[in-house]
Design a protein that fits this description.
- There is one protein chain.
- This protein has about 100 residues and is an alpha+beta fold.
- It has helices at about 15-25, 60-65, 70-80; strands at about 1-10, 35-45, 50-55, 85-90, 90-95, 100.
- It has one domain (about 1-100): Alpha-Beta Plaits (2-Layer Sandwich), CATH 3.30.70.
- The protein is about 30% helix and about 35% strand.
- A hairpin with a 4-residue loop joins strand 5 and strand 6 (about 100).
- The longest helix is centred in the N-terminal third of the chain and has 11 residues, at about 15-25.
Length: about 100
């Protein structure tokens, strides 16, 4: 599994309510997306940065999404380029399903 943290600096600070409204407008496009296990949207407490934390089944699944078109969409929606941090994720503790998930 791969975790990708995508973060971008906002051109002006937003409130939690403003961020939620924007995130709700894009969330449907991720429902049922191939290879995406979970996505968390976030906004910093001061409202100056926002992004998403994605848990993918594989790097290949993630690479199919993070295209130049996707980056242009983010740039158009939020006014800045995303900064991406790629993390190996060999174990997940899921307290909702009460299980430990490993990619081995």
């Amino acid at each position: 599994m791969i975790t990708v943290m995508v973060e971008f600096k906002l051109p002006q600070p937003v409130t939690r309510a403003q961020a939620r409204e924007t995130f709700m407008s894009t969330a449907p496009k991720y429902v049922g997306m191939a290879g995406l296990i979970r996505k968390y949207y976030f906004v910093t407490q001061d409202g100056t940065r926002a992004g998403g934390i994605y848990l993918w089944k594989s790097r290949e699944d993630a690479d199919r999404v993070y295209t130049e078109d996707w980056k242009a969409f983010v740039r158009g929606k939020y006014g800045t380029d995303p900064v991406m941090t790629w993390l190996e994720c060999p174990v997940v503790v899921d307290n909702v399903s009460n299980e430990i998930i490993s990619d081995d």
